[in-house]
Amino acid sequence: MTNFFASRKGIISVGLVIGCLAAILQYLGNPGNMGICVACFERDIAGAVGLHRAGVVQYMRPEIIGFVLGALGAAFMGRDFRPRAGSAPIVRFVLGVFAMIGALVFLGCPWRAILRLAGGDLNALYGIAGLIVGIGIGTLFFRQGYNLGRAQKTYSSVGLIMPLIMAGFLALMFLYPQVADEAKSGVLFYSLKGPGAMHAPLFISLGVGLLVGILAQRSRFCTMGAFRDLILFKQVHLLSGVIALLVAAFAVNLILGQFHVGFANQPVAHTQSLWNFMGMVLAGLCFALAGGCPGRQLFMAGEGDGDAAVFVLGMIVGAAFSHNFGLASSPKGVGPHGIASVFIGLAVCLFIGFTMRKKAA
Predict the structure, then answer these.
(1) End-to-end CA distance of the chain, in Å?
(2) Which DSSP letter does residue 333 get?
(3) How confident is the model at residue 256, as a pLDDT?
(4) What tens digit of pLDDT does each residue of 66-96 get?
(5) With contact defined as beta carbons under 8 Å apart, do 271 and 125 qualify?
(6) How confident is the model at residue 165, as a pLDDT?
(7) Which positions ≥6 away from 328 have C-beta within 8 Å?
(8) Number of folded domains that form the chain
(9) For 34, phi and psi rounded to 5 degrees?
(10) What digits encode the pLDDT tens for the residues 9-53?
(11) What domain of life does the native source organism fall in (predicted)?
(12) 8 A C-beta contact, residue 218 and residue 3
């Protein structure tokens, strides 16, 4: 089975499954063109635990919990649980923060960019183009010896920290479910309107998350890696899975009546093309420098990578910064300080890229 997932047919199968499930999650209640969005869902989790108080994006998303726990289970089953850490954690945290800021200027992670396109949102074309440019800039640093250093084998407890955090989040969902139309239940915040109030049934969302976590961990599915491998090595193995995701989501959206082509009036999206592009340039560069897209970071955290867990925590903190300081976009357009945050993020990424090269040492 491991060999199958490592094959071209395997990665295509995983992409098809993710694309179908994402479109179905939207049909069952998740926001439009947001059946799965790692950045948006981590932002909702940040709101659920009170790190930001944007009332329309607060919900403990079970899909994210399932990604990590599913990857953990797959890693144990495949004897692939490898606790490791120590590869420039503070840099990974900062990259996670700015990756989230860039993603929320665009309003979506790489997965959602593809799902937005599969739903007919043509604004996603600018985001995908920006993602490729950002990853392309990252590959220039790779060619010049950019490296965050080697992670070291460490205690099993280090590798289990992020899965335990996610298990704790799941426990909080059961201990403090939303009561009637209350915006807060116990320690958790719940949206009463907006994207945060739109979600598929809990157990379906959790089940999908677990399945995707298992499949993606075994196949090494990664959107950033797909474009990186194409640019650096002219390899299309991972890209074939990404294309399969797009095709599957497009087909299911057509069947379910969820395909609406155009730029205007798309769900949870804005039409400021330049900043759709630039937001994802920043996000793509962060993903490249950190070594994986946000989904891949969750799967690696599930298989014991403490550095990936630090990146995930950085993204959650970045979501809090974005909504507390007016960086995040909305359907009305870019936030009041979103443009400045993109330039600051790019400057920080360039500093990291230029100063962490072997040739610069």
Answers:
(1) 43
(2) B
(3) 98
(4) 999 999 999 999 999 999 999 999 999 999 9
(5) no
(6) 98
(7) 43, 54, 104, 105, 107, 319, 322, 335, 338
(8) 1
(9) -140, 45
(10) 999 999 999 999 999 999 999 999 999 999 999 999 999 999 999
(11) Bacteria
(12) no
List helix spans (H) across the chain: 2-5, 8-27, 38-48, 62-77, 89-106, 110-118, 124-143, 156-175, 202-219, 223-233, 237-256, 273-290, 294-302, 306-324, 338-355
Q: Is residue 237 over pLDDT 50?
A: yes
The 10 Å Cβ neighbour count of residue 333 is 12
pLDDT over 80 at 360, yes or no:
no
Residue 29 half-sphere exposure, CB side, CA atoms within 13 Å? 12
Encoded amino acid at 293, one letter: C
Interior angle at CA 169, CA 85 and CA 221, nearest 5? 55
Whole domain around residue 55: which residue ranges? 2-360
pLDDT at residue 181, as a whole number = 87
Q: Rounded to 5 degrees, what angle do the CA atoms 230, 22, 260 make?
A: 90
d(CA 40, CA 48): 12
Render pLDDT for 123-162 as a digit per residue (tens, 0 to 9): 999 999 999 999 999 999 999 999 999 999 999 999 999 9
* Residue 359 pLDDT greater than 80, yes or no: no
Residues 6+ apart with CB under 8 A from 71: 213, 214, 216, 217, 298, 299, 300, 301, 302, 303
DSSP 124-168: HHHHHHHHHHHHHHHHHHHHTTB-----EE--HHHHHHHHHHHHH
What 8-state DSSP symbol labels residue 178? Answer: -
Q: Specify whether the CB–CB gap between 283 and 103 falls below 8 A.
A: yes
pLDDT tier at 361 (50, 70, 90 boundaries)? very low
Cα dihedral sign, 279-283-319-197: positive
DSSP assigned state of 184: E
Q: Are 246 and 117 in contact (CB under 8 A)?
A: yes
Task: Give the chain's mean pLDDT.
Answer: 97
Q: Give CA–CA dist 272/284, Å, rounded.
A: 18
Under 8 Å between Cβ of 66 and 208: yes
Tokens 């490592």 belong to 6
Report which residue type is found at 253.
N
Please give the pLDDT value at position 168: 98
- In DSSP terms, 85 is beta-bridged to 152
